[in-house]
Amino acid sequence: MSKLKFDFSKVALLVSLIGSLIAFLTVEFIPALTGVELKTLDLRFNYRGVKQNYADSSDILIVAIDEVSLDRAPVKWPWPRSYYAKIVRNLKKAGAKVIAFDINFDSPDLNPNNDMDFQKAIEEAGNVILAGRETKDIKFKGRIIETKNLLRNIFIGTPNSSPGIVEVLRDYDGVCRRYVPVFSVGDTIFPSFGLAVLLAYYNLKIDSVYDFPARTPFENGFFQLGNIKIPKFDEKTWLINYAGPAGTFRYISFIDVLDDQEFKTKDEVEYGDINTFDNPEYGLLHDNVFKDKIVVIGSAIPEFKSELGDLLPVPFVKDESNLMYGVEIHANAIATVIERKFIKKTPPLLSFLIVFVFALISFLVATNIRKLKLRPEFVSELLNILFLLLYFGLWIYFSFLMFKENLILPTISPILGGLSTYIGSVAYQYFIERKQKRVIKRIFSYYVHPSVVNQLISNPDIVRLGGEKREMTVLFTDLWNFTTISEAYPPEFIFNILNEYFETMTKVIFKYGGTLDKYIGDALVAFWGAPIYYPDHALRACLCALKMQFELEKLRIKWEKEGKPLLYMRVGINTGEMIVGNLGGYGRFNYTVIGDSVNLGARLEAVNKEFGTNIIISEYTYAKVKDFFKVRELGSIVVKGKTKSVKIYELLDVLIAESKLVKIMS
């Protein structure tokens, strides 16, 4: 019993360590759980709320191709490139520091002069970022446009402009939370759209961007842009610190920037000039709206209304929707760096230590509450569950508060660690309370089949003196002339050979799912159908009998070489209704079967003497197994105490391969 005693502190540390590892690794490497952790990040964003007066204070503006612009433009979509040329010139005139097009110009204008005008405007401005995508061949009007090094934008390569890849990374659940700084296209490294804007804003080159991986588990890596260090969320991305839901940035209609003295909108054709851009009294040009600002131009058209639609899921929810235009996602990524509002997450080792401490406290509390021995027992578990709920709730609340300080604490992995060690505490408590029962089980296994022991321990209702009636199959064996043999040899010799015989036969019985009832001298009794019920109990018993004779033949060959006497066995098998259960008195019981069907099985074993056979089965067993075994009909007999005759059969062999029979039984 001393071997079962354990140092509680060591158990607590071991269980907590294992639970922490399971929790930490599953959240790190199972996408579904990673997705749950990311969902808690969304909740934290919404709990933190929107940055106040952000539209007025931000250095980033969005010029939107919106429904108003489409309605007021004198030309239907797609617009001529001359519109974009005018936008560039007007924004440059208004003092925009960077002009970024989140638009793919992947096909030529119907009028080549418009493309030339746009290209010239880009070159003159000197601060334009053009959107690119991964290179693919694209068919236009039956011909192939060469897209090598053009990133699906025919204006990339224009002097004094820079390309930026506009693909936005989506997480496991489709939400855009992270931002990729650089992309590899072919053999060339290109900046992402946001990074290209930042490089232009700070007047830097792509070779001024560095990637610093984490040097130790106590830290996270970072990207360096000039003298700005951007904390990594993972090896390839930074986390976008969203200012708020869709519409947090200031949106200005494309048509309002386009509408100067030289441009006529539909309204102006009908009602006269408005000139929202350069009107001296209220025009955007004179209000210094764009002065030293980053201007991102892109679509703000719902996807269901136009092919321009560019709506993607983000963490923030507004009016029950978490969709945001791609142009504003880029704006949020850029603003994260410009404002230095970086969200940092705990380094891997620190995250693991948090999970470990969380798990250890859960284990210690759970085990100590059970030591109170509260009655009824469920009260202890109820207290444990209430503690865990409170514990988890406080941790989640704390992690939400820390997010306001731009720190991400792990949420799901500590909870999983706590649950894991709670389960571990249940297992530990079970082990402590049941250790004596395991000792009893080990002792009983020498006398009855382990399945019986397992059922007696796991289901106390079985342990009763009464029994139940069910259809089963019983097997009786006896040895030929064993009394004569035993008189010719010393008792210890007979004991040893009988032990070897019983050990072999018992193994065969257990192999085929039988329950050993008892040894009676040189005879043994087994049955099938209890405590675990097999519908094919008769098939198992017959297969077992043949296997027993086969194993006895192997023993005889061995004994003959050793100069020992040769033993021969008779078997009787019967199927029918029997009463099975625990029979006995105080302090001692036997799991056995009784009834007329059992008595018939015993009689059949003895009948082998009259017919000179080895295995006899009754007509009731035969009816169950006739399709699987080769038999010989012996006739009908009337057993002692009965008036009705019973047909009996000699069991000879299997009709099909034993492997197939085993497959049928399984």
TrEMBL record:
<keyword id="KW-0472">Membrane</keyword>
<dbReference type="Pfam" id="PF00211">
    <property type="entry name" value="Guanylate_cyc"/>
</dbReference>
<dbReference type="InterPro" id="IPR050697">
    <property type="entry name" value="Adenylyl/Guanylyl_Cyclase_3/4"/>
</dbReference>
<dbReference type="GO" id="GO:0004016">
    <property type="term" value="F:adenylate cyclase activity"/>
</dbReference>
<feature type="transmembrane region" description="Helical">
    <location>
        <begin position="381"/>
        <end position="400"/>
    </location>
</feature>
<keyword id="KW-0812">Transmembrane</keyword>
<dbReference type="GO" id="GO:0030313">
    <property type="term" value="C:cell envelope"/>
</dbReference>
<dbReference type="InterPro" id="IPR001054">
    <property type="entry name" value="A/G_cyclase"/>
</dbReference>
<comment type="similarity">
    <text>Belongs to the adenylyl cyclase class-3 family.</text>
</comment>
<keyword id="KW-1133">Transmembrane helix</keyword>
<dbReference type="GO" id="GO:0006171">
    <property type="term" value="P:cAMP biosynthetic process"/>
</dbReference>
<feature type="transmembrane region" description="Helical">
    <location>
        <begin position="349"/>
        <end position="369"/>
    </location>
</feature>
<dbReference type="Pfam" id="PF05226">
    <property type="entry name" value="CHASE2"/>
</dbReference>
<feature type="transmembrane region" description="Helical">
    <location>
        <begin position="412"/>
        <end position="432"/>
    </location>
</feature>
<dbReference type="InterPro" id="IPR029787">
    <property type="entry name" value="Nucleotide_cyclase"/>
</dbReference>
<protein>
    <submittedName>
        <fullName>Adenylate cyclase</fullName>
    </submittedName>
</protein>
<dbReference type="InterPro" id="IPR007890">
    <property type="entry name" value="CHASE2"/>
</dbReference>
<feature type="domain" description="Guanylate cyclase">
    <location>
        <begin position="473"/>
        <end position="605"/>
    </location>
</feature>
<keyword id="KW-1003">Cell membrane</keyword>
<dbReference type="GO" id="GO:0035556">
    <property type="term" value="P:intracellular signal transduction"/>
</dbReference>
